[in-house]
Predict the 3D structure of the following.
Amino acid sequence: MTYRICFVCTGNICRSPMAESVLRARISEAGLDDLIEVDSAGTGGWHEGDGADPRTVSVLEEHGYDGTHTARQFQSSWFSRLDLVIALDAGHLKALRLLAPTPEDASKVRLLRSYDPAAGDDLDVPDPYYGGLDGFEECLEMVEAASEGLLAEVREQAEGQVA
C-alpha cells in the first residue's frame, strides 16, 4: 500500500513544490519510490496550471533537484486518499484543518518544520515570493533540514503499512 503525502503552501509555486522536489529526491535516494508518493498543492488557485516560480526552479536545479512542476489547488476531497498533509506555515495549517471533513482528517495536517529538531519554536517556512533569491535559498535550507526527520517518520509509517 502506498503512503501518500501532500505539501501545501499558498499558491503552490514556491515553498510546497520545493518541499515536494526535495522529499521526492530523498525518497528516491532511500529506495522507497514504491512505498511513498509525494505531491503538492496550494490553499488558493491563483497559479493553477502554472509552473513553479522561476526562482524556485533556479534554486532547486542549482542544488541538483528537479524543478518540473504544475501548480494546483488543494481540495478537501483529497484528505480521504492522503496519509499526511504538510503545511508550510501556521496559516496553511489552520486553513487545512478547517477544510478537513473530519477530525481524523484534521489530525493528518502537520507543519513541515516540526520535523526539524533545530527549528525551535519558529515552525513557519517564510514565503520567499516577495523577496529576492536569498529567500528561496533560505527556504530550501529549511526544507532540507526538515526533510530528514520527515522521511524517517514517513519511512516507519510506510514500512508499517506493508508489514
